[in-house]
Design brief:
alpha/beta, Rossmann fold, 4-stranded parallel β-sheet, 4 strands, globular
Length: 125
């Protein structure tokens, strides 16, 4: 069964393949294709071969490598979004984080356009 929106291609990146695979199997989102990677080389390869819309990077990867992965994504694609998971929620927070990020993107792309109201500077609504 498919929803109203286009298929979203998501690259899930984690330090351990079994965690990435488990996350991919547990994420409950419609109209999504999930890919997995554990290294910068795998990230680059997937980004060059697949139409990735968004990438979610787990917190277990060292910050310097997470940033290198984000840089690679932005160098390869002009439309990708990159989301870095927090450390505080730990491994159990990975699946809910991925699902929230996907849901947020799907709602944003399916939402009808609404007029924007601008407030004068200094005025609080």
């Amino acid at each position: 069964m498919t929803g109203a929106g286009p298929t979203l291609h998501v690259l899930i990146v984690g330090r351990l393949l079994d965690i990435v695979d488990e996350t991919r199997s547990r994420v409950q989102c419609r109209d999504v294709v999930l890919y997995g990677a554990t290294t910068l080389d795998e990230v680059r390869k997937t980004l060059s071969l697949k139409p990735i819309d968004m990438m979610v990077i787990g917190a277990a990867i060292e910050l310097s490598e997470r940033l290198a992965m984000a840089r690679a994504a932005f160098e390869i694609s002009e439309s990708i979004t990159v989301h870095l998971k927090d450390k505080a929620s730990g491994p159990p927070g990975f699946v809910p984080f991925v699902e929230r990020v996907i849901a947020s993107r799907q709602m944003a792309t399916q939402a009808p356009e609404r007029p924007v109201s601008l407030c004068p500077p200094g005025q609080v609504v």
